[in-house]
Specification:
With 310 residues, the chain is of the alpha/beta class. The radius of gyration is 22 Å and the shape is elongated. The longest helix has 15 residues. Helix 7 packs antiparallel against helix 8. Helix content is 27%, strand content 30%.
């Protein structure tokens, strides 16, 4: 049997479309799961080699379900990411008119991306969330809702019609997906990488977040995502999900992570992996002291001082 990849299903999700852009997907059995949680649990239990799930969109930011699952439970690691441009279609059973629509459904992350269109065209329609956009299409097929926001490509799969297409409140909206597996040695740096971590403070105090972010700033590391998530320990207790430019094998990144390990109650490493946009890290000019060469030279200088060779 081929190795399998779990993904947020059912068939016909944007997640499936994004997953199929990975070359290795052609050699894997692709298995849909009903939720992000169940897809990631399949990896934790060994049912799947990896899981492919959405983690961020350009309209609302981080997908909280995915972030929370990566924050808690048995550790997992991100190995790849994919960016997919997103536009929605309003899928209905054949013969349905816009005036017939009283209920609509989709994944919760879709609502902020179609909110203005919904207000302008279906102001009285009742919104209810579905486990995924494709699952919303399936529920429309079954007659439980009048319409679903999903990819136009899902219409034929569920025997529906696209009543409206190219629906989006924000131009050039994108969703970011990640391939998640069990912890292992990160891939070698590609030259255009991203490192993801979760940080827990030892105690809440003035300047606490500044202290954590300073470990990146003083080493010239640019942050690409910073999102707080509740720890469940009460109001005001948060951890911080961070994406930073660079790879753990970069001296500046390794030193930043060592500094954070000293400062934090806990640090969860979520992986170093190639950026989907192939962007090169925005490192300060060498005279600012943040190049790998300068970190190496500084380390050599300390070693010489320790040996009395300065």
């Amino acid at each position: 049997m081929p190795a399998s990849y779990a993904y947020l299903g059912p068939e016909g999700t944007f997640t499936e479309v994004a997953l199929r852009t990975l070359p290795e997907a052609a050699t894997r059995e692709l298995i849909p799961y009903v939720s992000v949680q169940s897809a990631l649990d399949a990896v934790r239990t060994g049912e799947a080699e990896a899981a492919f799930v959405p983690i961020e969109n350009s309209v609302e930011g981080g997908i909280t379900t995915t972030l929370d699952e990566l924050v808690a439970g048995q550790p997992l690691m991100i190995y790849r990411e994919v960016l997919l441009s997103i536009t929605f279609a309003l899928l209905v059973r054949p013969g349905t008119k816009l005036s017939d629509i009283k209920t609509v459904t989709a994944h919760p992350a879709a609502q902020p991306q179609v909110r203005n269109w919904l207000r302008a065209n279906l102001p009285d329609a009742l919104w209810e969330s579905a486990a995924s956009n494709a699952d919303g299409a399936r529920l429309v097929q079954e007659g439980r809702y009048d319409a679903a926001f999903a990819g136009e490509f899902a219409a034929d799969r569920y025997g529906l019609e696209a009543l409206e297409t190219e629906i989006h409140d924000a131009e050039n909206a994108q969703t970011r997906f990640v391939l998640v597996g069990r912890p292992a040695r990160p891939a070698a740096p590609s030259g255009a990488d991203k490192t993801s971590v979760v940080l827990w403070q030892r105690a809440d105090h003035p300047g606490g977040l500044r202290d954590l972010l300073g470990e990146f700033a003083t080493r010239g590391i640019n942050l690409m995502l910073l999102q707080s998530r509740p720890t469940g320990a009460g109001i005001g207790n948060y951890c911080f999900c961070v994406d930073a430019e660079g790879h753990i094998s970069d001296r500046r990144m390794a030193e930043a992570l060592m500094g954070l390990k000293r400062l934090c109650l806990q640090v969860r490493f979520l992986g170093s992996y190639p950026r989907a946009d192939a962007g090169v890290a925005d490192v300060r000019p060498p005279f600012m002291g943040t190049s790998d060469e300068e970190f190496g030279a500084a380390a050599d200088w300390v070693a010489r001082c320790q040996d009395g060779r300065f």
